[in-house]
Amino acid sequence: MRYARRAATILALAALVATSACSVEDDPGSSSDASAKCGSGKDFLIGMSQANNAEPYRQVMNDDVTNAAKSVPGFKVVVSDAAQDNSKQVADVENFLSQGINLLIISPNEAKPLTAVVKKAYDQGIPVIVLDRKVEGDAYTAFIGGDNVAIGKAAGEYYAKTLLPQGGKVVEISGLPGSTPAAERAQGFREGIASNPKIEIVASQTAEWLREKGQSVMDAMLKANPDIDAVYSHNDPMAEGAYLAAKAAGKETAIKFTGIDALPVPSGGIKAVEQGRLQATFQYPTGGREAIDLAKKILVDCAKDVPKTTTLGTQQITKENAAEVYTTLGGKQ
């Protein structure tokens, strides 16, 4: 009887060891599992969680991701549109996880609400590339995006030295509150104009990155501040909306407008500068091609060490160089 009990105990311990071995081997976060999932000649499903397809910049980003993925054998990209809804974007990522994606690319609508679900994917061993907008903490594989503080500062310096050297009243049309580019572009701009104390920001209001809201916000700002000299917009579509509001009020020639993005498409900021509606725009690359390049290194090349942060460059675009930059960036006619 004692021997039988000892045999049962040995069997139970053997089963426990076998179970433990399986749980380690099947752990999606383990290095052995990650190595098993990568390599050439395999098929990979990539989930692209987009914040809001209604923004032209994000549609170009989607195109850059999907077009770049076509050149990588085995890559399939599925794009979801959160429509500027944090809860929907969380659900989109959860849906991707249930589909068994091999890698997640996400451009968060806002930082804090998307942090937990990004961490969930990362903790499950899924490589996560955060694109353009950040999340809180560092529970992700890599971040790719522009230096929004530097871009905002470059815009501010352009105002201080070139656009309004004698000073003037400026209104700021900002991006979505809670998104990191909005906060950083505002911070950078204030740093940039600090050298010219005669420049005054008389009002700042969000238009949530959207052209039509930029128009309505500018209409209200004009009524409250009829003598403004310039509009600093956090992106080109809102700047274009502000221009339309000023034009309706007969003030489009008296006010100067600048934006950020510089998309090389007919409806983008470079053409708006070339055609005289904006005085300047500042390039903000989508990072879509760079995200796929990094995904290839992770999934196909089995790279163990990839840069945690990739900062994309910018350039100032004015009427003097708009046509040249448009062509250089592969602008669509």
CATH architecture of the largest domain: 3-Layer(aba) Sandwich
**Number of alpha- plus pi-helical segments:** 12
Instruction: Give the SSE order as H and E letters.
Output: HHEHEHEHEEHEHEHEHEHEHEEH
Please state the average pLDDT score. Answer: 90
**CATH level 4 superfamily of the largest domain:** Response regulator
**Radius of gyration computed on alpha carbons:** 25 Å
Strand order of the largest sheet: 2-1-3-4-5-11
The number of E-state strands comes to 12
Major sheet = 6 strands, parallel
- Which consecutive residue ranges, at least 5 long each, have pLDDT under 50? 1-35
Structural class: alpha/beta
Tell me the span between the first and last alpha carbons: 88 Å
Number of domain units: 2
CATH fold naming of the largest domain: Rossmann fold
